[in-house]
Amino acid sequence: MEQRYADGLRPVPERSNDDGDTRSLALLMHAAFFLLLGASLARFLLRHPGEARTPWIIGLSVALAVLYVVGPVLGSRPTARSLVWLGGLVVVWMVVVVLAPSFAWCAVPLFYTGLRILPPRAAYALVALLTLFVVAAQLRLAHGFDPNLVLAPPAVAAVATAVFVHMRRQAVRQGKLIDDLLRTRRELAATERREGTLAERQRLSMEIHDTLAQGLSSQQMLLQAADRTWDSDPAAARRHIRTAEGIAERNLAEARRFVHDLAPADLAEGGGLDAALHALAARETAQAQGRLTVRCHIEGAPHTVLPDRTQSALLRIAQGALANVTEHAGATEAALTLTHLDDRTVLDIADNGHGFTPTATASGGVRGHGLPAMRARLRQLGGTLTIESAPGEGTVVTATVPVAPTPQDPA
């Protein structure tokens, strides 16, 4: 990347040439140059009409104006072309000043031009050279020695240089602040994308675990049972296969639902969470073929419609809990109880299986990801998961989700 000197300390990355205050100062200096050049030419023509040097002064003034117009096209970087242009501009100005000292005050815009293009040391040297030339020109015009003519040009040059260097340093400082802000925003956006990706991966893993993985596990068990009874009891084997076929059909519907909007298929069919839990209980009972009976109870009525996220999470938790009952508990009966209270909704999944020690789930003693996935779902909703169980006494899994209170009617 090309660089330019901004403040005499170090090169900084090239920005959009001049921006903000620097651009305004550039326009002001351009206007000042042509105003001073026109005023100097007019003064010379009024005071020295018909002299032999007049055509030279007019021609050099036009050449100086043309050269100055070409400058902005070349840009503000110290390239070979811009350096040649600046050298030609200064030489033509010096020749004009030698012929007509009144053109000396055009040096002020030239100070700015040199500071804008050259590196610091070269720019300060050019400013000093132009200042000496102005002092010499003013002394030629004076009839005697005048201290003001010796001190005023260096003072003007010092003020002009200080203003320019200060504005350039301010521009560099603002540019650094903008770069830091943009970099911070990019880093924040990247962090948010990573967090969103991780959250989406976790959500998909829970969805797949609670639906497709559980369905495939049930199919595997049914197909293994069909294989064992294939010769001894063909009718039972066919029933197992038909049940596995139903589970496969259900999994296919869930997979298609994932592609659509990741909503549970039971909820997508309409009827809300109550109907979805009844359908789940009936389906699990049918798939168990007499080994497990699942009942569903709804207590109370919701004061407000539960959000889709809450309904989906509770249904997935019920699916995961029943899958655990089927695979691990050895239960013959299970119950789904959905209770609608004023400030919360509670889902209980109870079974009469052989139970377990709940502390084993915290230490990783229970196989699978069902309970951690349930906790993760409820954590996203501000809810809690409670497990009550003991060996030989069955299990009760309770999921509690807070519900926003309904605004009271002022009447």
TrEMBL record:
It is an enzyme of class 2 (transferase). It catalyses: ATP + protein L-histidine = ADP + protein N-phospho-L-histidine. Its main location: cytoplasm. SMART domains: HATPase_c. Keywords: 4Fe-4S, Cytoplasm, Iron, Iron-sulfur, Kinase, Membrane, Metal-binding, Transferase, Transmembrane, Transmembrane helix, Two-component regulatory system. It is found in: Cytoplasm. SUPFAM superfamilies: ATPase domain of HSP90 chaperone/DNA topoisomerase II/histidine kinase. PANTHER family: NITRATE/NITRITE SENSOR PROTEIN NARX-RELATED, SENSORY TRANSDUCTION HISTIDINE KINASE. This is Oxygen sensor histidine kinase NreB. The keyword Protein biosynthesis does not apply. Pfam families: HATPase_c, HisKA_3. Member of the two-component regulatory system NreB/NreC involved in the control of dissimilatory nitrate/nitrite reduction in response to oxygen. NreB functions as a direct oxygen sensor histidine kinase which is autophosphorylated, in the absence of oxygen, probably at the conserved histidine residue, and transfers its phosphate group probably to a conserved aspartate residue of NreC. NreB/NreC activates the expression of the nitrate (narGHJI) and nitrite (nir) reductase operons, as well as the putative nitrate transporter gene narT. The lineage of its organism: Bacteria, Bacillati, Actinomycetota, Actinomycetes, Kitasatosporales. InterPro entries: HATPase_C_sf (IPR036890), HATPase_dom (IPR003594), His_kinase_dom (IPR005467), Sensor_HK_TwoCompSys (IPR050482), Sig_transdc_His_kin-like_C (IPR004358), Sig_transdc_His_kin_sub3_dim/P (IPR011712), Sig_transdc_His_kinase_ChrS (IPR017205). It comes from the Bacteria. One of its GO terms (molecular function) is kinase activity.
